[in-house]
Amino acid sequence: MDVSARSEDGVTIASLAGEFDAHHSDDALEALAKLELGPKGLVLDMADVTFLDSAGISSLIRLREQNADGAVTITNPSAPVQRVLGIVGLLEHFGLEPD
Fold it and tell me: What is the set of domains in the chain, with CATH numbers?
């Protein structure tokens, strides 16, 4: 999984690409935890995430819990991400609307 980040208008935007699964979730979470968050929180751009499993979901939840002071939202979810987060009922928790 590739993680790149930029800051824009007080928000840290992290772009994720690849598979967010048991093989990559710890590395992705570690990379995200090292980011210096803007005062307006963290946005995860998941347009290029091709696969999301329970380990990836767990990492997203842990990331949100670790950043309780700032918002953690998802933007541009790929179809697999949208589908999985919808199935487990987490769309609204990350600022997404159900289809």
Answer: 2-94 (3.30.750.24)
DSSP label of 96 = -
Alpha-carbon gap, residue 38 to 49, rounded angstroms = 23
Global pTM reads 0.90
Provide the 3-class DSSP secondary structure of residue 3.
Answer: strand
pLDDT in tens, 6-48: 999 989 999 999 999 999 999 998 998 888 887 888 999 999 9
Q: What is the Cα Rg of the chain in Å?
A: 12
Q: For residue 92, give Cα distances in angstroms to 2, 70, 73, 82, 95.
A: 25, 16, 9, 11, 5
List, in order, residues 6 or more apart from 53 with CB less than 8 Å away: 20, 21, 22, 84
